[in-house]
Amino acid sequence: MPDLKFSNAEPDESERLLIDALVDNPPIIRHSERVVHGGVRRAKDVRHLLLPGLHLLNNSKGWISPGGLNYLAESLRVPPAEAFGVASFYDLFELEEPEGDGPRHHVCVDPSCAIAGASSYAEHLRSQGHSVHESPCLGQCERGPALFVQARGSAPIDMSSGANEEPQFDTTLSNKLLQRFGNVDPTSLESYRESGGYQALDRALSLGSDEVLKLVTDAGLTGRGGAAFPTGIKWRAVAEHHGPQKYVVANADESEPGTFKDRMILENDPFALIEAMTIAGVSTGCFKGWIYVRGEYTTAAELLTSAIEQAYDAGLLGEHAQNDSYSFDIELRQGAGAYICGEETALFNSIEGFRGEPRSKPPFPTDSGLFGCPTIVNNPETLLNVLEIVLHGVEGFRAAGTRESPGTKLFCVSGDVGRPGLYEAEFGVPLRVLLAAADTPSSEIRAVLLGGAAGSFLGPDQLDVPLSFEGAAASDATLGSGAVMAFSKDADFLGIVSQLAKFFRDESCGQCVPCRIGTTRQHEVLLQIDSTGPNSKQRNLLADLSLVMGDASICGLGHTAASAVQSALREGLLGEPYE
Amino acid sequence: MSNDHVSLVINEQPVTVGAGTTILEAAQSLGIAIPTLCWAENLTPANVCRLCVVEAEGARTLVPACSRACEDGAEIRTDTNRVAQSRRMVLELLDSTNDLSQSPELQTLIDEYGADSSRYTDPATPEPSPKIEDDLFIRAYDRCVLCYKCVEACGEDAQFSFAISIADRGFDARVSTEYDVPLPESACVYCGNCIGVCPTNALQFKTEFDLREASDWRPEDQEVTETICSYCGVGCTLELHTQDNQIVKVTSPADHSVTSGHLCVKGRFGWEYLQAPVYRPPSDP
Amino acid sequence: MFGAGGGTSSYQEVEETDFVLLWGSNARTAHPIYFHHVLKGIRNGAAMYAVDPRLTDSAKFADAWLGIDVGTDIALANALAREIIASDLHAPEFIQHATTGFEQFAEHVDSYTLDFAAEITGVEAGSIKDLAHRYATAESAQILWTLGITEHHNGVENVLSLCNLALLTGHVGRWGSGLVPLRGQNNVQGGGDMGALPNKLPGFQDVNDPIARKKFEELYGVALNPRPGLHLTLMFEAMSKGELSGLYIIGENPAESEADVQRARTLLEGLDFLVVQDIFMTRTAEMADVVLPASVGWAESEGTVTSSERRVQRVRAALTPPEGARHDHDIIGDLAECMNVPWPARSPEELWDELRTLSSMHRGMSYARLEEHQGLQWPCPDNDHPGTTYLHSWLWEEDLGGREPAPFSLTEHSGPKEALSSEFPIRLTTGRVLDSFNTGVQSRGYRSPIRSGSDLEISPMDAEHLGLSNGEEVVVSSPRGSVKMTITIERDQPRGLAFTTFHFPELVDLNVLTNDQWDPLSGTAEFKAAAIRIDKLTGHDRA
User: Fold this and answer.
1) How many contacts does A have with B, using Cβ atoms within 8 A?
2) Could you tell me the maximum CA-CA distance found in chain A, to the nearest angstrom?
3) Is the per-residue pLDDT at C522 higher than 80?
4) Rg, C-alpha atoms of chain C
5) Which of A6, C366, C461, C467 has the lowest CB atom count within 10 Å?
């Protein structure tokens, strides 16, 4: 514990109680008046409680008061300036006392929700006297305009809370990953087991870790978060480290505009994620898993919390689980409104109680990840595939999809479509077929934004692109997270593209110059373009910004921040197309 | 090839270096200059300014020379058009945002790379307002390029005081105390190690600030003398910057084994008694 | 230590050691840049334990803090030694090879059981045992100390007790292991090296060694007094006996810095002739018959100073001194000429080169080499020598480098000379704060935003017991006098202990309170332990 200086700001009684309950293993132990144990290491061990502590404070009063923050910082021995730096990083935390006692309404204004009438909805809420914050994508694109409410004195709530509507998913094209959706009670471990749950783990245990690693590798499973890195290579790299601490992280910080698949997995099939993480753990020698859920997915977090508890109670998690077959723990962390925390190293920093700024790679997470230890990071969708592979083998898995992209994929279809929702399809399905399944005639489509804000626009002549990694790449596009946003001829493309640019400007962590300033300048240029489209000076500027962000930024956010803008220009969505 | 050495090629020149050597260090050993801004020899590479990017064969994007370790068999180019374009844009973006008038090295690079910040219409910029909260130093954050050096020097790279951090996010990110409280209320111990590492003069001695305000800051008339601080027995090397027989600021060499460029409040600021016009009894107020 | 008057280790070693034992030193505050090296060590994985009556800023970085009673260091050190021996964690081969007196030592410390030490020091036996085991089993370990060890009536014995621990475990004479006293001023080490000790010639050569003396006599052309002189404390003794009537003081402010300062002032006033050479018109200078204004050593003069890692470094003139102020060596040189003594070498470099012919440990340190190497660490006997990073590697050599083995020392606990009493029930100890220096004549010159004044820090329990509140002005008395002070309640302060700084004599004439009981071996006064009483102000005091 450095000789930190704390302020004189005092917490109120409720803040003090919340923090005292959180910090059960304080970094300073006063054995007596004459012997104190402390040190830098003890403080490091508890710092990961900073983010949960900030949530507690913000939820209790609707903002984080100087007294509350000071007390939290002192309890964890975090420098107050750093605690403030962390708190101010996240959109969901308020550091000034809000006016009025009412809840804060976050209304999504990103493209799909804009089409669904977000601006008039926001206006409506304002007219009722509510405090409204225009939010980036809330991951509820199938039922926009999306709303997320932070009330004082209670946990925030999302749209799934108390919703009676049936979840909008479609299994007509394929039904593997979604097979339990609607058939299994997500609040009941018993229901999950009755439908075959935990058979994959049993099989994995009987196969042994080498065999599981071989299966995952041979199946050709790749990451479904956007980067499509081979999962088997990742797992094997971590399995080959023999240090005492290694981690499995489920990255459920799904924040890519137009993406809601992981939310639906967590809300409909939470035990599957827990089972798959356990398989990852026992197969690679990791004893601890973390699930990082974005802060706006409150229903998913509740279901997961309950699911984890049930798994512990049933002896499926914890030390010496299942009659000492393995040891595996899972801890849940909630984000607090920061797209960048979906970047794996930013996610590590966020869990560890630091600002969610991406780290320089190398070192890669498989060598030095969470808390500096070897770490597997997988998306929930990726992990769900592991159950399929373990149960049905390499051939069973490869029966679907293409040679380079085996298996099925979840697509999040939204925008100007007949039936927005989550669609499972084999890799390689033509875009046109997917759109048709969503009751969207191709003739109505002017452009499809494939892969979210970080993806690119495809024109009407590209609707036959096969939705596989190699197929998208051949069209200079990316599947990304599986977001498919369709836009009709009537769409305001300049507005949409400017909004995407604003998204990156707002969500840049601010660490590196190309992204911090580049996203800002890109947004400024777009705001200056009139209906005749960009002039050559503006085009050149956008091209130069695209180049420096794509080439010199630290992480994927900057690398892709100009992708949609450039593809819109190429596609002629903002005026005359050019090459 | 042994495990503790790697061989690579930079601009077609082969070089063998110790494992862990950065591309920047390897290039320097060949006499190849790579510009840097957020890098400093006495700090952990923050790796944020991206001015030092170079092309590595096989890498999808450019890589930062300051922090990337050399890999065996790597082929590095520091002189391509692609590299120059990115550097030009980094400089242009900084110049469109910050007052770089007190950063002669950046001005030189801006000219060299042909960065033209006049291309941006009405760019957002930070507010030009120097914070003057004490008699020792000022903070002019419109000159701050967010290189993270001051935060590192205040934190684990030297001082462990953690008085400042980066707050907020994106373009609004800034160096700040908790709730922006004034420095004297913060954990600041006025070691001035932040000033010592600031590359743009956003942080400067109050003496320098006052002389600049009076249009009397004359670097060409200044001398730098190395001596040893008298305030304790550690033996810190001080660089006394003098103008007209007055100390105007104090630094320490970053490559010195005793200080690594860092000082304490007494070494950095405790010289004022020398400037007294006459030697007075200390009991005089 | 073991025949050489300097810290054994380089700063860099504490960055690479496994265990740091910080004992009686608040380096975070008093030696901030040295503490940067400690912090690098901690960052690299070193464990740190702190022994100090107060939970200092330095101790806050420690894995464990042991808050011993003031003046109980020997009891703790001997108990650590006993525990190390009893648990068979000592280094028998090293002890056999490089030391003498182990058997007697083991017997001597046998009475210092953990429980005994716990009773004396106030620290639980379990924590003492823990420290003993951590220190003894570390791969490498350093003990660092400052005036918390030396400013006692038995300061030298305190140091010897720490040396015993290093000998017992072999934590000396190797990279990363050693004993490091941190010096308070930039040339405390250099002053000693240059013979500014009553019994030493430059290079730690004994005044009473005729062979050493002969070198100097031949060069100076005069016969040197073979008898050791007086150290500062003995000078005051001599003044009080009327044996010393004239004094020439260079750069020292005893009229404010001496313990029991009222006595010191009376003695200075009683001198027949007082000359003060200083850069300030200090309180001492005000009492002088002749004041010789000097230039500032580190900014207006050329020369060298020596640091706590024995690194000799150059100081240089950056400023022209004010009119009339002259370099110390010019003043002394002119005085010498006035006394008809020839003074051939006059420039600082010429003086230095002369020294190099007389002191072998400095021989390889030309100005050019000092410049080239960022200073050099003694011993540096010739022009090709790189300097010496750590001392006493001979302890590990087969023939001990031809030297005698290092002896264990037998030391006994004896608490502060001034015992607490019902009249003076609170222990007062003193120390530095970050932004100030000694009696403040220099540090007062800049406008520090973190200056905190000279409050008396006491524990919350004592404050409650005495009915005192934060910021209250009180009268503080010791058997020697009384001063008014302001109370600060310090949460981490142990009961019965009061702390203050000594930087603001113009605000609080603190050394009125401190005890001038001194160590017969070093002459250092017991600044660190006085007995005091704290009284609320009466109407009379306020007036």
Assistant:
1) 167
2) 80
3) no
4) 24
5) C467
Chains A & C: contacts with CB separation below 8 Å: 57
Q: For residue range A160-194, list pLDDT tens digits in order.
A: 876 667 889 999 999 999 999 999 999 999 999 99
Average pLDDT over residues B96-123: 96
- Asked if A554 lies within 8 A of B47 by C-beta distance, the reply is yes
CATH topology of domain C426-542: Barwin-like endoglucanases (2.40.40)
**Which residue, A371, A294, A286, is CA-closest to A329?**
A286
For the segment A93-120, the average pLDDT, to the nearest whole number, is 93
Query: Which superfamily does B131-275 belong to?
Result: ADC-like domains (2.20.25.90)
Q: Where does chain B hold its CATH 3.10.20.740 domain(s)?
A: 5-79
- Residues facing residue C119 across a β-bridge: none
Q: Cis ω on the peptide bond leading into residue A362 (within 30° of 0)?
A: yes
CA–CA distance, A145 with A177 (Å, rounded to integer): 27
A274-286 confidence digits (pLDDT tens) = 999 999 999 999 9
Which pLDDT belongs to residue A435? 96
pLDDT of B278 above 60: no
Residues of chain A with Cβ-Cβ distance to C58 below 8 Å are 3
B136/C449 touch (CB, cutoff 8 Å), yes or no? yes
CATH architecture for segment(s) A493-570: Up-down Bundle (1.20)
Instruction: Chain C: list its partners (3+ Cβ pairs within 8 Å).
Output: A, B
Question: Please, which pLDDT band fits residue C540 given cuts at 50, 70 and 90?
Answer: low
Number of neighbours of residue C263 by Cβ within 10 angstroms: 18
Q: What is the pLDDT of residues C249-295, one digit of tens each?
A: 998 889 988 878 889 999 999 999 999 999 988 899 999 999 999 99
Task: Examine the pLDDT at B242 and tell me if it is beyond 70.
Answer: yes
- Residue C450 has a pLDDT of 87
CA atoms within 13 A on the CB side of A545: 33
Partner-chain contact C309 B278, CB within 8 Å: no
pLDDT of C333 higher than 80? yes
- Say whether A551 and B53 touch across the interface (CB within 8 A): yes
Task: Measure in Å the smallest separation between the Cα of C485 and chain B Cα atoms.
Answer: 18
Across chain C, mean pLDDT equals: 91
CA–CA separation, C541 vs C543, rounded Å? 5
Residue B68 C-alpha, separation from nearest chain A C-alpha, in angstroms: 8
Q: What pLDDT is stored for residue C507 in this prediction?
A: 61
Statement: A408-488 belongs to CATH 2.30.40.10: no
Could you give the CA distance from residue C12 to residue A362 in angstroms, rounded to a whole number? 29
- Contact across the interface for A35 and C65, Cβ inside 8 Å: yes
The pLDDT of residue A243: 85
How many angstroms separate the CA of residue A30 from the nearest CA in chain C? 10
Angle ∠(A215,A221,A225) on CA atoms, nearest 5: 145
B162 lies within 8 A of chain A by CB: yes
Q: Which residues of A touch C61 (CB under 8 A)?
A: 1-3, 38-40
From CA C182, how far away is CA C26, in angstroms rounded?
A: 10
pLDDT band at B107 (very low <50, low <70, confident <90, very high): very high
Fold of B5-79: Ubiquitin-like (UB roll) (3.10.20)
**Domain C11-181 carries which CATH code?**
3.40.228.10
Residues on C contacting A at a C-beta cutoff of 8 Å: 28, 42-43, 47-48, 55, 57-68, 122-124, 127, 492, 494-495
Interface of A with C in 28-67 (CB under 8 A): 31-42
Which fold does the domain A189-398 belong to in CATH?
Rossmann fold (3.40.50)
Where exactly are the structural domains of chain C? 11-181, 188-377, 426-542
Nearest CA-CA distance, residue C284 and chain B, Å: 11
Average pLDDT over residues C128-153: 93
Residues of chain B with CATH 2.20.25.90: 131-275
Residue type, position C426, single letter: I
* CATH no. of C188-377: 3.40.50.740
Q: Find which of B179, B180, B190, B194 to mutate to test the A interface (most A CBs within 10 Å of its CB).
A: B179
Asked if the model's pLDDT at residue C323 lies above 80, the reply is yes
Report CB contact under 8 Å: A38, C65: yes
Q: Could you tell me the two tokens for A484?
A: 């498919």
Closest CA to C179 of C323, C9, C423: C9
Question: CB–CB of A86/B167 below 8 Å?
Answer: no
- The ranges assigned to domains in chain A are 13-87, 189-398, 408-488, 493-570
